[in-house]
């Protein structure tokens, strides 16, 4: 087997082991022939007894998503409507605001770090808000004036910005122009 993550080859190896076990070949010999530990063959035997050959087929990896595809699509629509439409005081989407919206709407709690992954899956990309000097200090401008971003029907470029809680300065990591 060329690569450790070649899932089809791993499945073929499990199925070959199942055939050998069905022929009555001892588990230790099956392990030698297919190149796995005896404990692995014992796990395959348990799966065969409980679920049959289907238990040895490839299955999805990782933790299942808590938001369904329909809920993710609905979240995208809610984000397009804007933060003001969702009851927030400004039009700026922050990761904690998106997390709060998901918690209120879908009863699923995500950390701000995971919100970033969710937004990327929905098609969001990184942007920094424009900055300008105002009154001797630097203020973050939150208007829709980011160049090169697609505009929605109102001519505004909506953005999602990650703000560090407790910090006075916005550190923008994630944003996307939302074109409706």
Assembly state (oligomeric): single chain
* Overall geometry: elongated
Order of helices and strands: HHHHEHHEEE
Q: Compute the gyration radius: what is it? A: 25 Å
Q: pLDDT below 50 for ≥5 consecutive residues: which ranges?
A: 138-152, 154-158, 162-180
Structural class, from secondary structure content? mainly alpha
Number of helices: 6
**Percent helix range:** 40-55%
Biggest beta-sheet profile:
2 strands, parallel
Question: What is the number of E strands?
Answer: 4
Kindly report the average pLDDT value. Answer: 75
β-strand amount: 5-15%
- Number of domains in the coordinates? 2
**Main sheet: strand order:** 1-4
Q: End-to-end distance, in Å?
A: 48 Å
Explain what the structure shows:
The protein folds into two domains: 7-56; 69-161. It has a two-stranded parallel sheet. The protein has a two-stranded antiparallel sheet with strand order 2-3. By secondary structure, the protein is mainly α. The protein contains six helices and four strands; from the N terminus they run ααααβααβββ. The two termini are 48 Å apart. α1 packs across α3 (38-51).
Features:
180 residues, mainly alpha, disordered C terminus, two-stranded parallel sheet, 2 domains
Furnish the topology, listing elements before pairings.
Elements lengths: L6 H16 L4 H8 L3 H14 L17 H13 L11 E2 H12 L5 H10 L9 E4 L2 E4 L19 E2 L19
Parallel strand pairs: 1-4
Antiparallel strand pairs: 2-3
Helix pairs in contact: 1-2, 1-3, 2-3, 5-6
């Amino acid at each position: 087997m060329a690569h450790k993550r070649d899932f089809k080859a791993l499945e073929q190896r499990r199925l070959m082991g199942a055939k050998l076990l069905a022929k009555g070949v001892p588990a230790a010999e099956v392990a030698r022939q297919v190149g796995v530990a005896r404990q692995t063959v014992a796990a395959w035997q348990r799966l065969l007894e409980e679920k049959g050959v289907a238990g040895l087929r490839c299955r999805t990896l990782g933790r299942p998503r808590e938001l369904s595809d329909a809920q993710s699509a609905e979240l995208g629509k809610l984000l397009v409507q804007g933060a003001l439409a969702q009851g927030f005081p400004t039009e700026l989407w922050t990761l904690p605001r998106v997390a709060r919206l998901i918690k209120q709407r879908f009863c699923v709690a995500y950390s701000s770090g995971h919100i970033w992954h969710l937004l990327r899956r929905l098609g969001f990309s990184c942007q920094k808000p424009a900055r300008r000097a105002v009154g001797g200090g630097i203020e973050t401008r939150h208007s829709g004036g980011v160049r090169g971003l697609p505009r929605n029907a109102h001519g505004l470029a909506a953005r999602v910005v990650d703000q560090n809680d407790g910090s006075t300065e916005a550190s923008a990591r994630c944003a996307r122009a939302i074109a409706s």
